[in-house]
Design brief:
Length: 487
């Protein structure tokens, strides 16, 4: 499988100083608003990959942080390293300037460094939609990169000229961008595609269930990493994939975009997405942080399994519980990673305390698995991903109708539903109507009268009997149709 950053075709890197429109052009080329865009400079920090196209021409495109002069272990220096790696991987560099501002000293400084990297360069003059750009286009000629390509990434203007320039610069290598089978690597997650409801009249047998499970294993797992700022999400992801793919450091809130990485674990495909840290809503005042949180929420909605990363030294705070509840409300499978476990002294006591808190606070999905890990040392990371695959399988399970109804009869016989108006309420039949998450319909007389506590009794029994820990279970009550009622 193609890993993140690898391509069978062409790779183009978009580079330039801060706030020249790199992320806007990235979004335009991949055809979706994936990268965060704001007038504030420095929004992009990690390098981000997507599948770009201009007409029939296709390529891998990389969005980068604004290039700034910085050294040492500062955040800006680490951002610059991400840009340097993107240029190393690229077949061609799109060097963006702001045509309205003209050529700045920072543009010239960046270009001096870029020339030393020995990559083909196309000069792109962005924001060229008005007469205000004419002077800047004239100045751009003195950079010595040939004719600047006037484009407006925001309005989609000039992309045909950009394509001609890319083909001219690449020569025969441009043939690698000719039309071929497209994939969707540019999106954080493709929509999981909620399955249509099954027909209740069709019994789902063991053979069909086995075939369904096999089909699930052949699809890539869509896995999101979420949590509060500075709990070590990016460090954990870098350790998993074996490279410094994401910016990390002591500063809280380094990650702003949801960054997707294609990866493999024990031969199984994974689309891994690191997300921005989520603080309490009352503390979020910055516009870019609001955009980051919205991006994270969207990632959760399209994920299949969500790993909630906790700081093991702090454990389950109120915000952690809020995020966990949100994941379960969206119907996603939830797994908890207690990170920085190498710092915990009394590990059995800490683990028991965490389990007790989860069982007490997250009653809507009993049995949520907790895996103690260390992103710094790599402790238990294989175990974490194995647990994610096991949970994914449970989340996708389709259960045989016959087995469900044998279980239902035993549950009702063991603990009958209460009498209402002198008549016994009785769920008579059930079937699974959806997966992702498992959803079940119960058929009975007067379903509106069944108490909530009896429904919880059935749901908890269902989870225990069919081994569905940590998976949200949805249920619906339906009235049995009276065959003697008039149509």
């Amino acid at each position: 499988m193609r890993r993140d950053g690898e391509t069978m075709g062409l790779t183009l890197a978009i580079v330039g100083r801060p706030n020249v429109g790199k992320s806007t052009l990235f979004n335009r080329l991949i055809g979706k608003r994936q990268a965060l865009v704001d007038d504030q400079p420095g929004v992009t920090r990690d390098r981000r990959y997507g599948e770009g196209r201009i007409g029939p021409f296709r390529f891998r495109v990389t969005d980068t942080a604004g290039f700034e002069e910085a050294k040492g272990d500062t955040l800006e220096a680490r951002m610059r390293e991400q840009t340097e790696r993107a240029v190393e991987e690229a077949d061609l560099v799109l060097f963006l300037i702001d045509a309205r501002e003209g050529v700045t000293s920072m543009d010239q400084h960046f270009l001096r460094w870029l020339r030393k990297q020995h990559r083909p360069i196309v000069l792109v003059a962005n924001k060229s939609e008005s007469k205000a750009s004419f002077a800047g286009l004239g100045e751009a000629h003195r950079l010595g990169l040939g004719e600047p390509i006037p484009v407006s990434a925001e309005h989609g203007q000039g992309l045909d000229l950009l394509l001609d320039a890319i083909r001219d610069k690449l020569g025969d290598k441009a043939k690698r961008g000719e039309p071929e089978e497209a994939d969707d690597d540019g999106a954080a997650f493709a929509a999981p595609g909620e399955e249509p409801e099954f027909e209740d009249t069709d019994a789902f047998d063991e053979a069909a269930a086995a075939a369904h499970d096999k089909a699930v294993e052949e699809r890539p797992l869509q896995l999101a990493i979420v949590g509060r700022p500075n709990v070590g999400k990016s460090t954990l992801v870098n350790r998993l994939i074996g490279e410094e793919r994401l910016l990390v450091g002591p500063e809280a809130g380094i990650t702003r975009d949801s960054i997707a990485i294609d990866w493999e674990h024990r031969g199984r495909r994974v689309r891994l997405v690191d997300t921005a840290g989520m603080r309490r809503q009352a503390k979020v005042t910055d516009k870019v942080e609001r955009l980051s949180v919205a991006d994270t929420l969207n990632t959760i909605r399209f994920a299949e399994v969500v790993i909630l990363v906790l700081d093991a030294e702090v454990m389950l705070e109120k915000q952690d519980l809020t995020v966990a509840s949100l994941v379960l409300e969206e119907g996603r499978a939830l797994l908890i990673a207690a990170n920085k476990w190498d710092r915990i002294e009394d590990k059995p006591k800490a683990l028991k305390k965490l389990h007790d808190r989860i069982e007490k606070s997250l009653t809507q999905a009993k049995g949520i698995a907790v895996v103690p890990v260390s992103g710094l040392t790599g402790q238990n990371l294989d175990r974490l991903i194995d647990a994610a695959f096991a949970l994914h399988k449970q989340w996708n399970r389709r259960l045989p109708t016959a087995a469900l109804n044998r279980w239902l009869r035993a549950m009702v016989d063991s603990h009958p539903a209460p009498l209402v108006g002198g008549r016994r309420l009785k769920p008579r039949y059930m079937t699974q109507i959806k997966t992702r998450p498992p959803t079940f319909a119960f058929f009975m007389n007067r379903p509106e009268k069944l108490p909530d506590d009896y429904m919880r009794y059935l749901t908890n029994g269902l989870r225990e009997r069919f081994d569905l820990p940590g998976v949200p279970i949805r249920t619906t009550l339906r009235k049995i149709k009276n065959p003697y009622a008039e149509e």
